[in-house]
Design a protein that fits this description.
Elements: E1 21-23, E2 29-33, E3 36-43, E4 48-53, H1 57-62, E5 69-74, E6 80-84, E7 87-92, E8 95-99, E9 110-115, E10 121-125, E11 129-132, E12 140-141, E13 158-160, E14 166-169, E15 174-178, E16 181-185
Antiparallel strand pairs: 1-2, 2-3, 3-4, 5-6, 6-7, 7-8, 9-10, 10-11, 11-12, 13-14, 14-15, 15-16
């Protein structure tokens, strides 16, 4: 067995490093290939991979930010979250919503995503951490005190521990959110 290359229609994908691949409940994959979101599927029995643009031309025309993607995440509710331009985009049931500074999501390059156990969506950019409470329509900014990352940070961890605390990293610390604030762990903390 082993690994086999995924080459839809026999062509190579141009995937940049970072959060640029996600799985759909259907078993299909979403990948960002040269700033375009593609849906990949394997045809049985030969296992040949096929691709199609995920967004229609009408959706792209209506939301030009969808042509500038930095990350993709599919949460357990099936919603697709994207870093699009300097904003956050959500695709759900054929509709695309944009969350920008006017809806509480500051301009950033959004890299990492987490839907926590309480249904809050956490988004991590190079500078900011933003949270969308379950059923809310506006993000809230929850920036760690030393949260800025360098541009080389392509994979930014954003995880929830067994006690429900949110962890992320920065250039100088591991930061942990608990209830209403961040705690940094640095070299002086033994890290």
């Amino acid at each position: 067995h082993g690994f086999r290359a995924i080459r839809p229609e026999g062509r190579s994908l141009r995937l940049a490093a970072g959060s640029r691949i996600a799985a759909l409940a259907s078993g299909h994959l979403l990948v960002i290939d040269a700033d375009q979101l593609l849906e990949l599927s394997a045809a049985a029995p030969e296992g040949m991979w096929h691709s199609r643009p995920f967004f229609t031309q009408e959706q792209l025309d209506a939301t030009p930010l969808l042509e500038h993607l930095s990350s993709v995440y599919v949460d357990r509710l099936g919603r697709i979250w994207l870093g699009c331009g300097a904003a956050i985009c959500r695709a759900e049931q054929g509709r695309v919503d944009v969350f920008d500074a006017g809806s509480g999501a500051p301009e950033d390059v959004w890299r990492s995503w987490l839907l926590d156990r309480e249904g809050r969506l956490w988004a991590r950019g190079l500078v900011h951490v933003a949270v969308l409470e379950a059923e809310a329509t506006r993000f809230e900014t929850r920036d760690p005190p030393h949260g800025r990352l360098s541009g080389e940070s392509l994979n930014v961890p954003l995880v929830q521990d067994l006690d429900g605390r949110i962890l992320t990293s920065s250039n100088i610390a591991l930061s942990r959110w608990h209830q209403d604030g961040w705690q940094d762990f640095t070299k002086t903390s033994g890290i």
